[in-house]
Amino acid sequence: MTQKQMIIDHLKAGKTITQLEATKKYCITRLAPIIHNLIRQDGVPVKKMDRISKSGTPYAEYYLENSAESTDEPALFPR
């Protein structure tokens, strides 16, 4: 299974994904280019939400449109 397919399956299951999750679950160290290709080449409606961790570090959380899960961290710039 390709990295792209792993991410598609994860998102289609109604889950969100961050770089940290992608690294831990799938050993994917460069999530952003995969997301970019899903959007630009495949037309997958992936959305991004900028978040801030409890320690103050910003990060991106990706989800399929109409399937976002809520998390404890506040959103910075919902898109």
Give a quick rundown of the structure.
The protein has 79 residues and is α+β, with helices and mostly antiparallel strands. It is built from three helices and four strands; from the N terminus they run H-E-H-H-E-E-E. It has a four-stranded antiparallel sheet.
Structural commentary:
Mean pLDDT is 88; it is low at 70-75. It contains 3 helices and 4 strands; from the N terminus they run H-E-H-H-E-E-E. 35% of the residues lie in helices and 25% in strands. Strands 1-3-2-4 form a 4-stranded antiparallel β-sheet. Strand 2 (46-52) and strand 3 form a beta hairpin. It is globular, with a radius of gyration of 12 Å. It has helices at 3-12, 19-26, 31-40; strands at 17-18, 46-52, 58-64, 75-78.
Jot down its keywords.
79 residues; alpha+beta; four-stranded antiparallel β-sheet; 3 helices; 4 strands
Residue stretches low in confidence (pLDDT < 50, at least 5 long) are 70-75
What percentage of the residues does DSSP assign to strands (E)? 25-35%
- The SSE order reads HEHHEEE
Structural class: alpha+beta
What share of residues is helical? 25-40%
Figure out the total of helices.
3
User: What gross morphology would you assign?
Assistant: globular
How far from one another are the termini? 30 Å
Walk across the major sheet and give the strand order: 1-3-2-4
The biggest beta sheet, please?
Answer: 4 strands, antiparallel
Number of separate strands = 4
**What is the averaged pLDDT score?**
88
**Estimated radius of gyration:** 12 Å
